[in-house]
Amino acid sequence: xxxxxxxxxxxxxxxxxxxxxxxxxxxxxxxxxxxxxxxxxxxxxxxxxxxxxxxxxxxxxxxxxxxxxxxxxxxxxxxxxxxxxxxxxxxxxxxxxxxxxxxxxxxxxxxxxxxxxxxxxxxxxxxxxxxxxxxxxxxxxxxxxxxxxxxxxxxxxxxxxxxxxxxxxxxxxxxxxxxxxxxxxxxxxxxxxx
Length: 194
What we know:
By secondary structure, the chain is of the alpha+beta class. The chain has a domain at 4-117: Jelly Rolls, CATH 2.60.120.10. Helices cover 49% and strands 22% of the residues. It has helices at 4-11, 18-26, 83-88, 109-118, 120-146, 149-159, 161-164, 169-175, 180-193, and strands at residues 29-33, 38-40, 48-54, 56-62, 68-75, 79-80, 95-98, 102-108. Strands 1-8-3-6 form a 4-stranded antiparallel beta sheet. Helix 8 (169-175) packs across helix 9 (180-193). The longest helix has 27 residues, at 120-146. InterPro entries: cNMP-bd_dom, cNMP-bd_dom_sf, RmlC-like_jellyroll. This is Crp/Fnr family transcriptional regulator. Pfam families: cNMP_binding (PF00027). It comes from Spirosoma aureum. Residues 31-118 form the Cyclic nucleotide-binding domain.
């Protein structure tokens, strides 16, 4: 049986029977990644959902100029995947790469869909998880439109203090829609103000 953290994550939104928990855990395999190792390459179809047991990953896409834009980070007790690619069996538009050595629990899309079909409580878990994720993305979009670069960085530091020292500043900069140079100026101002 998998580490309790996975089941505790599920229990936040729903309750499974002991038998369902056991069945759910049997769907997962362990996947280890070294720092900078790719989990998902743009252009390939994402076929798994991943739960982060340890480590840190980032999701990014490359624009037409070849510049990286970070759109999501995941650390312990968070989930990561390319929902678009997985849902539509379409080539991924993003890359997922380990920022640190990471250990993940992976479950195949087909196994997960079948389990959710049989287990309404599990479908509830993912519906609520995806709703929370959608709300976070919605708020992030509004912040990008309404906050200055410095306000976005201060908010990021307050909202995700566990990420600030684990993710290189250049990745935080692109996540916030800032150039590395402008980010360095803002970062210095914020540190002086603390």
